[in-house]
Write a structure and sequence with these properties.
Layout: E1 2-7, H1 10-22, H2 38-54, E2 59-68, E3 78-88, H3 97-105, H4 115-132
Helix pairs in contact: 1-2, 3-4
Length: 133
């Protein structure tokens, strides 16, 4: 199971590239090819918050894609796309991976969510929490 992170605009991509360099990962012209474990994604988001502070930016729009190769959530090989997400920092507070996923997963109300979607979302959050422990 791994994540890929991509920016939605030129500035967003540049800020993500700076954060990627800061954590010691090699950057490439194809940022979607850089794979992050759940823990690495959490670290990458924290460093992205620090980069935003240094650049006097308050937010970045990004998309996270979870690649479930093992089938821990549903069928093996399923991809889950979260975004576009508005990663906003505020006075040293950086949103965590779980914060971003919860915001995206629960942006629809329970009335508009099917039972299958609700079950999948709960399973998704459970698996991510286990990976972060």
């Amino acid at each position: 199971m791994f994540f890929t992170i991509s920016g939605n605009a030129k500035l967003d991509k540049e800020l993500i590239r700076k954060a990627t360099k800061k954590v010691g990962k090699r950057t490439s012209f194809l940022p979607k090819t850089i794979k992050y474990s759940v823990i690495e994604t959490e670290e990458q988001l924290h460093v992205l918050g620090q980069v935003l502070e240094q650049e006097n930016q308050s937010s970045v729009k990004l998309t996270l894609t979870l690649h479930d190769k093992e089938g821990k959530i549903e069928k093996a090989g399923t991809e889950y796309v979260f975004g576009p997400l508005d990663y906003q920092i505020s006075e040293g507070f950086y949103p965590t991976l779980m914060d971003l996923i919860r915001l995206d997963v629960f942006k629809d109300t329970d009335e508009t969510m099917s039972v299958e979607e609700s079950y999948r979302n709960e399973k998704l959050l459970q698996v991510l929490e286990e990976e972060l422990e």
